[in-house]
Amino acid sequence: MSDQEVSRGLEGVTVAETRLSRIDGETGELTIGGFPVEELATNATYEESVFLLFEDRLPTAGELDEFRADLAGRRSIGDEVRDVLRRAADEERPAMDALRMGAAAASLGTGADDSGEDARRVIAAFPTIVATYWRYREGEDPLEPREDLRHAANYLYVLTGEEPDDAAVRGLETYLNAVIDHGLNASTFAGRVVVSTESDLVSAATASVGALKGPLHGGAPGPVLDMLRAVHESGDPEGYVRDALDRGERLMGFGHRVYRVRDPRAAVLSSAAERFYEAGGDAEFFETVRAFEDVAVGLLAEHKPDRRLETNVEFYTAALLAGIGVPQELFTTTFAVARVGGWMAHGLEQLADNRLVRPRARYVGDTGREWTPVEDR
Ligand code: COA
After folding, report:
1. Can you give the pTM of this predicted structure?
2. Structural domain includes residue 127
3. Is 314 a catalytic residue?
């Protein structure tokens, strides 16, 4: 590519090889660790998905037990991390800011400088960091993680203090697996850029959390839930969508940089959410969700006839996580709890065959300016 050609947002530029996931944006297929997302999301435990990404194969029963125990043994966080989280909660900082600060503090007191260990420690500690912050926010004492529970079950336990039922664990696990990795999305790329300087994986995780926070990436499901609740109350999805588009707003939960068809994760999560709402949730609310999707996709097609804007992963994430009982304020941090498995696998992959990431920019500023002393300006 010449110095003059600019690909804004790096659209269409291939900058790495990966065996972790493959997206076909035209057909709407997503492969994670060699499996179709539907297969992995509905069958795997989160620990199996992480092992798969790290080792490029499924674990045997013995390996899985060992890996699970290893992660479970790394869930606790130190007082120094708790202090940061208490302060973040007291100051009512957003959950993603708390996670960023907690992740950064997680390397205190470990003494370790090993990428594999860092990767496992960060993955294991993320749920504890999020839940500890949340319990402080709610005026409750944080809970010690339970080593006897699976990763997903322990996350719900440390959040709520109750042992979750199987349906909630399975629903959350489906979500965690469905979004664990997704090509070179912005947060994954940000992490790989950090690792490419031969920095460490904790720094990479911190950068990734920062990138995920934005509404164009991971910040959409909270606003999606607000939108769904408003529409459920008004009973007028068409009016809502038309008004939003007339105001020039983007409809959260729709459109994607890569997919030109419905995001395959939306299908996986909508089935998972449907099971939930049918088995005792607010079935009428879920009917609103479905009806809203149809109306929105139709009106977006009228609004942008040249660009297919279909449902993305965030739309049903909002419905599913709300159904399971994850607080809305923690939707994006829960996305991070899932995606950190992919971030860490990408970090290790980058390190294994590293090349410093260093693109170029086309200079469009002035040249040849003459310096004016400050007293003459
Ligand atoms: N609602 C309304 N219009 C949308 C839209 C949406 N959700 N998504 C894209 N568009 C419009 C844009 O305004 C743009 O119109 P313009 O050409 O008149 O400016 C056109 O479609 C092309 O969009 P573009 O900005 O090129 O898309 P992108 O590839 O940069 O954006 C997203 C991808 C995901 C950032 C974008 O679709 C979006 O903002 N979606 C809402 C946020 C969201 O759900 N994020 C989660 C992503 S998983």
Report:
1. 0.93
2. yes
3. yes
- Specify the residue for token string 């912050």: 133
CATH number for 274 = 1.10.230.10
The DSSP secondary-structure symbol of 254 reads: B
Beta bridge partners of 311: 254
Among 232, 256, 346, 349, the active-site one is 256
Among protein residues, the one whose CA lies closest to atom 24 of ligand 1 = 257
User: Ligand 1, residues 256, 258, 335: which to mutate, most atoms within 8 A of Cβ?
Assistant: 256
Q: What residues form DSSP beta bridges with 29?
A: 24
CATH of the domain at 51: 1.10.580.10
Q: 361 — alpha (psi -120 to 50), left (phi > 0) or beta? A: beta
In order of 5, 15, 25, the CA distances from 12 in angstroms are 13, 10, 12
Q: Is the CB of 269 under 6 A from ligand 1?
A: no
Q: With the C-alpha atoms ordered 91, 95, 100, 102, is the resulting torsion angle positive or negative?
A: positive
Range of the domain at 120: 29-215+329-352
Based on the fold, state whether residues 60 and 193 are members of the same structural domain.
yes
Span 35-86, pLDDT tens digits: 999 999 999 999 999 999 999 999 999 999 999 999 999 999 999 999 999 9
Whether 151 is a known active-site residue: answer no
Residue ID of nearest Cα to ligand 1 atom 4? 250
Write out pLDDT tens, residues 108-128: 666 567 899 999 999 999 999
Ligand 1 neighbour 255 (Cβ under 6 A): yes
Are residue 279 and residue 347 in the same domain, yes or no?
Answer: no
